[in-house]
Protein backbone atom coordinates (compact mmCIF):
# COMPACT_ATOMS: atom_id res chain seq x y z
CA UNK A 1 0.00 0.00 0.00
CA UNK A 2 1.31 3.44 -0.96
CA UNK A 3 0.25 6.62 0.77
CA UNK A 4 1.35 9.45 -1.52
CA UNK A 5 1.69 12.78 0.31
CA UNK A 6 1.66 15.79 -1.98
CA UNK A 7 3.37 19.12 -1.47
CA UNK A 8 2.20 22.65 -0.70
CA UNK A 9 -0.76 23.80 -2.87
CA UNK A 10 -0.70 20.48 -4.71
CA UNK A 11 -3.21 17.61 -4.66
CA UNK A 12 -3.93 14.02 -5.59
CA UNK A 13 -3.97 15.29 -9.18
CA UNK A 14 -0.25 16.13 -9.17
CA UNK A 15 1.90 14.58 -11.88
CA UNK A 16 3.82 12.31 -9.49
CA UNK A 17 0.69 11.16 -7.66
CA UNK A 18 -0.96 10.29 -10.97
CA UNK A 19 2.17 8.59 -12.33
CA UNK A 20 2.33 6.36 -9.25
CA UNK A 21 -1.39 5.61 -9.51
CA UNK A 22 -1.05 4.73 -13.21
CA UNK A 23 2.00 2.52 -12.59
CA UNK A 24 0.21 0.61 -9.83
CA UNK A 25 -2.82 0.20 -12.09
CA UNK A 26 -0.62 -1.25 -14.83
CA UNK A 27 0.67 -3.76 -12.27
CA UNK A 28 -2.90 -4.73 -11.32
CA UNK A 29 -2.40 -3.03 -7.95
CA UNK A 30 -4.62 0.06 -8.26
CA UNK A 31 -6.11 -0.66 -4.82
CA UNK A 32 -2.66 0.02 -3.30
CA UNK A 33 -2.79 3.80 -3.97
CA UNK A 34 -4.06 6.38 -1.49
CA UNK A 35 -3.55 10.11 -1.87
CA UNK A 36 -5.75 12.40 0.21
CA UNK A 37 -6.03 16.06 -0.72
CA UNK A 38 -4.48 17.87 2.22
CA UNK A 39 -5.51 21.19 3.73
CA UNK A 40 -2.94 24.00 3.94
CA UNK A 41 -3.20 23.94 7.76
CA UNK A 42 -0.37 21.62 8.88
CA UNK A 43 -2.17 20.49 12.05
CA UNK A 44 -5.19 19.39 10.03
CA UNK A 45 -3.01 17.81 7.34
CA UNK A 46 -1.02 15.68 9.79
CA UNK A 47 -4.22 14.68 11.65
CA UNK A 48 -5.82 13.55 8.40
CA UNK A 49 -2.71 11.54 7.47
CA UNK A 50 -2.52 9.92 10.92
CA UNK A 51 -6.17 8.86 10.69
CA UNK A 52 -5.52 7.44 7.22
CA UNK A 53 -2.58 5.35 8.44
CA UNK A 54 -4.45 4.10 11.52
CA UNK A 55 -7.47 3.11 9.41
CA UNK A 56 -5.41 0.87 7.11
CA UNK A 57 -5.23 -2.78 8.06
CA UNK A 58 -1.99 -3.41 6.19
CA UNK A 59 1.56 -2.04 5.99
CA UNK A 60 1.89 1.26 4.16
CA UNK A 61 4.83 2.89 2.41
CA UNK A 62 4.88 6.66 2.50
CA UNK A 63 5.94 8.60 -0.59
CA UNK A 64 6.20 12.32 0.08
CA UNK A 65 7.22 15.19 -2.16
CA UNK A 66 8.44 18.56 -0.85
CA UNK A 67 6.14 19.45 2.09
CA UNK A 68 4.77 15.92 1.71
CA UNK A 69 8.31 14.66 2.40
CA UNK A 70 8.34 16.73 5.59
CA UNK A 71 5.05 15.13 6.68
CA UNK A 72 6.26 11.67 5.62
CA UNK A 73 9.32 12.09 7.84
CA UNK A 74 7.18 12.87 10.89
CA UNK A 75 4.80 9.98 10.21
CA UNK A 76 7.55 7.48 9.40
CA UNK A 77 9.23 8.20 12.72
CA UNK A 78 5.93 8.08 14.61
CA UNK A 79 4.58 4.86 13.05
CA UNK A 80 7.90 3.14 12.13
CA UNK A 81 7.06 3.09 8.40
CA UNK A 82 9.14 3.04 5.23
CA UNK A 83 9.22 6.45 3.57
CA UNK A 84 10.48 7.64 0.20
CA UNK A 85 11.23 11.36 0.31
CA UNK A 86 11.32 13.26 -2.97
CA UNK A 87 13.08 16.64 -2.74
CA UNK A 88 11.70 16.99 0.81
CA UNK A 89 11.23 20.29 2.60
CA UNK A 90 13.57 19.94 5.56
CA UNK A 91 12.83 23.26 7.27
CA UNK A 92 9.29 23.69 6.03
CA UNK A 93 8.39 26.64 8.24
CA UNK A 94 11.44 28.58 7.11
CA UNK A 95 10.77 27.71 3.48
CA UNK A 96 7.08 28.58 3.50
CA UNK A 97 7.12 31.77 5.60
CA UNK A 98 7.24 33.70 2.31
CA UNK A 99 3.96 32.00 1.30
CA UNK A 100 1.79 33.54 4.02
CA UNK A 101 -1.45 34.62 2.39
CA UNK A 102 -4.16 33.20 0.16
CA UNK A 103 -3.11 31.07 -2.80
CA UNK A 104 -4.90 29.25 -5.58
CA UNK A 105 -4.35 25.51 -5.47
CA UNK A 106 -2.51 24.16 -8.51
CA UNK A 107 -5.04 21.55 -9.59
CA UNK A 108 -8.34 23.16 -8.63
CA UNK A 109 -10.04 26.53 -8.34
CA UNK A 110 -9.87 26.32 -4.54
CA UNK A 111 -8.16 29.12 -2.63
CA UNK A 112 -6.01 28.06 0.32
CA UNK A 113 -5.08 30.30 3.23
CA UNK A 114 -1.64 29.93 4.80
CA UNK A 115 -0.95 31.88 8.01
CA UNK A 116 1.86 32.81 10.39
CA UNK A 117 0.31 30.28 12.79
CA UNK A 118 0.83 27.59 10.10
CA UNK A 119 4.49 28.62 9.79
CA UNK A 120 4.87 28.43 13.58
CA UNK A 121 3.26 24.98 13.60
CA UNK A 122 5.65 23.73 10.92
CA UNK A 123 8.60 25.11 12.89
CA UNK A 124 7.38 23.25 16.00
CA UNK A 125 6.98 20.02 14.01
CA UNK A 126 10.44 20.16 12.39
CA UNK A 127 12.51 17.02 13.04
CA UNK A 128 16.21 17.65 13.69
CA UNK A 129 17.33 14.04 14.19
CA UNK A 130 16.26 10.90 12.34
CA UNK A 131 15.69 8.01 14.78
CA UNK A 132 15.05 5.23 12.23
CA UNK A 133 17.37 5.95 9.27
CA UNK A 134 16.85 2.54 7.64
CA UNK A 135 13.20 3.44 7.06
CA UNK A 136 14.09 6.26 4.66
CA UNK A 137 15.02 6.58 1.02
CA UNK A 138 15.97 10.16 0.16
CA UNK A 139 15.68 11.05 -3.53
CA UNK A 140 17.17 14.39 -4.58
CA UNK A 141 17.66 16.18 -7.86
CA UNK A 142 20.37 18.79 -7.27
CA UNK A 143 18.93 21.47 -9.56
CA UNK A 144 15.86 21.87 -7.33
CA UNK A 145 14.97 25.54 -7.77
CA UNK A 146 12.91 25.66 -4.56
CA UNK A 147 14.95 23.86 -1.90
CA UNK A 148 18.58 23.69 -0.84
CA UNK A 149 19.20 19.97 -1.39
CA UNK A 150 22.19 20.06 0.98
CA UNK A 151 19.84 20.48 3.96
CA UNK A 152 18.21 17.15 3.10
CA UNK A 153 21.53 15.39 2.56
CA UNK A 154 22.62 16.56 6.01
CA UNK A 155 19.41 15.65 7.90
CA UNK A 156 19.14 12.24 6.21
CA UNK A 157 22.89 11.55 6.20
CA UNK A 158 22.49 8.07 7.71
CA UNK A 159 19.60 7.15 5.41
CA UNK A 160 19.53 5.53 1.99
CA UNK A 161 20.13 8.27 -0.57
CA UNK A 162 19.78 8.66 -4.32
CA UNK A 163 21.32 12.00 -5.29
CA UNK A 164 21.03 12.92 -8.97
CA UNK A 165 22.57 15.80 -10.90
CA UNK A 166 20.23 18.05 -12.84
CA UNK A 167 16.48 17.82 -12.51
CA UNK A 168 14.19 20.25 -10.70
CA UNK A 169 11.87 20.57 -7.71
CA UNK A 170 9.22 18.44 -9.44
CA UNK A 171 11.77 15.59 -9.62
CA UNK A 172 11.80 15.07 -13.37
CA UNK A 173 12.89 11.40 -13.19
CA UNK A 174 10.12 10.21 -10.88
CA UNK A 175 8.31 8.05 -13.45
CA UNK A 176 11.51 6.20 -14.39
CA UNK A 177 12.22 5.41 -10.73
CA UNK A 178 8.83 4.08 -9.58
CA UNK A 179 10.02 0.46 -9.75
CA UNK A 180 13.01 1.44 -7.60
CA UNK A 181 10.63 3.12 -5.13
CA UNK A 182 8.42 0.02 -5.07
CA UNK A 183 11.40 -2.22 -4.28
CA UNK A 184 12.57 -0.09 -1.34
Automatic annotation (TrEMBL):
InterPro entries: AB_hydrolase_fold, UPF0227/Esterase_YqiA
GO molecular function: hydrolase activity
Origin: domain of life: Bacteria
Keyword set, alphabetical order: Hydrolase
The keyword rRNA-binding appears for this protein: no
The protein's name in its UniProt record: YqiA/YcfP family alpha/beta fold hydrolase
The organism of origin for this protein: Phocoenobacter skyensis
Lineage, uppermost ranks: Bacteria, Pseudomonadati, Pseudomonadota, Gammaproteobacteria, Pasteurellales
Amino acid sequence: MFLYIHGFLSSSQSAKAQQLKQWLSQQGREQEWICPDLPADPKLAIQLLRKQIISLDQPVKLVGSSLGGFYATILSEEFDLKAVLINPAVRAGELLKQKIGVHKAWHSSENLSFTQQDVDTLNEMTPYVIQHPNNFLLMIEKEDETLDYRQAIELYKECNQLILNGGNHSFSRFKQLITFIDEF
